[in-house]
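Hi, here's the filled form for the chain we discussed.

Project: internal
Contact: R.S.
Residues: 271
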Amino acid sequence: MKLAVISCIHGNYEALNAVLSDIDDRKADQIYCLGDLVGYGPYPNAVVELIRSLDIPTCQGCWDEDIVEGLNSCECSYPSQLAEHRGRLAHEWTNKVIHPEVREYLATLPMTLRLDNLCFVHGSPNSQHEYLLPSMDGFAALERVLSANAEVLFCGHTHVPYVRTLEDGTLTVRVFLAPGKEGSQTQFKTPVKQIVNAGSVGEPRHGRPNATYVLYDTDTARVELREVPYDYQRTCAAIVERGLPAIFAWRLARGMEFAERADDPNHVCQR
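And the returned structure, exactly as it came back:
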C-alpha cells in the first residue's frame, strides 16, 4: 500500500491543492496528515474544510491545540522577541477568523495515529511541541520511536523533511542498589527503526518555497521525499491582503525558518 503523509499546512490552501494533485497523480492509497492545519497562513477555514471533506486521518498539531486551548504552551522556540510578537499576531488573527465548527473539529483531533507498525505524530509521541531534529542524540531519537511502539515514526513540526535510520543497536539498562549490594543489568537489541519527517506543505523551511510531503510504500518500506512547486505568490499576496505580518510572505517566498535569528539570551517567552 502506498501512503502519502502531509504536515504543517498552516492555512496555505494553494499549497495543499498542489500537493493533493501530486498525491493523486502518484495514486496513493491513503493520506495521513500530521496536523498544524492552521496558523500563519491566510486560509485556515478552507484548509480544514478540504481536509474534512476528504476524510483524511489527522493528528492535532501545536497550532491546532493553541487555537482550541489558547496560548497555553511554554515550549515555543522563537529565537527573538520580534519573532514571538509576530507569532502572537498570527494566533490572534487566526483565532478571530476561525469558524466555530472548525474550532470544534480541531478539538477532536488525536495526538497520535497508528497503522500496523507505523505511528503518526505532529511533534513527537510526547508532545505536539517537541522537535525531533535530525541532529537529535541517537539514543534520544531511538527512545522516541520505542516509546511509540513503532518501527517507523512519522512526524512534522520542524518544516524540514528528512529520513533518519536508526541502525541495530544494543541498549544496556543498569540498576544500582545501595553500596555493597549487587545491582542488575539488562541488555536488549532493537531492530532498525526510522524517523520520517514530512516537512511542510504550507510553510516550508528547507530553503525553497516548494511544498513538501512524503510517500511511503508499506510493502517495500521505500520512502520518497516529494517537493511540489505551486503558485506561492498568490498565498503571499493573500497574507498581505488579510493583514497578517507581511514578513510571513517574504519568508514563505524564500523557504526560510525565521526572518532573523537573534537567539537573544535575554529573551523570556511570554506564552
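Let me know if anything looks off before we file it.
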